[in-house]
């Protein structure tokens, strides 16, 4: 990571009130320019195990190399985990997790995600959502032009259309942007990591 950008970060997770266990996990590695959040698929078996596997796999990746190489390493890692979790489905039922990963390398940044865990950018006293949810609610808003209120009222609004371990091949979405001093965060319902320094980030 470029020493000109001394990133500082912090992460926190909480169980919340609606679940009997905490199914969130996060990776906080400012020295490697890597942050991630995973949230076990609610209502399914062993979501806590799935999210921990995702974060453990990402934590084991080397932090060296150009950003393009690191993006490809993350993709390979998550695709491998996707296959592992799908093969575990027959024994344990559906086992899956959302994921969002933020990578920084000098003046470049990349966000990779599947599901509804999110990446945000704080710039100019405003908060911008960089990622786009892979959920039925978002699908209804995009394809059927429903308002957020009507889409949210749908009985299956919170259902995911992509995830690690879902019963379809993993399709990660990737966004690249110029990185500079500023603040960016990866979040799920009850977990958040933040990387920050003074200044602003550029656009995609």
Write a brief caption for the model.
The chain is of the alpha+beta class. It has helices at residues 47-59, 67-92, 136-143, 148-153, and strands at 8-13, 24-29, 34-40, 97-105, 108-114, 118-123, 126-129, 173-178, 183-188, 191-196. Strands 1-10-9-6-7 form a five-stranded antiparallel β-sheet, with no helix packed on it. It has a five-stranded antiparallel β-sheet with strand order 2-3-4-5-8, with helices on one face.
Report on the structure:
The protein has 204 residues and is of the alpha+beta class. It has a single domain, classed as PPM-type phosphatase domain (Phosphatase 2c, domain 1), CATH 3.60.40.10. Helix content is 26%, strand content 31%. It contains four helices and ten strands, in the order βββααββββααβββ. The protein has a five-stranded antiparallel sheet with strand order 1-10-9-6-7, with no helix packed on it. Helix 1 packs antiparallel against helix 2. The longest helix has 26 residues. The radius of gyration is 17 Å and the shape is globular. The two termini are 20 Å apart. The mean pLDDT is 81.
Beta-strand percentage range: 25-35%
Q: Which word captures the global form?
A: globular
The helix count comes to: 4
Total of domains: 1
Largest sheet: 5 strands, antiparallel
Number of strands: 10
At CATH level 3, the topology is: Phosphatase 2c, domain 1
Strand order of the biggest β-sheet:
1-10-9-6-7
Low-confidence stretches: none
The overall pLDDT, averaged over residues, is 81
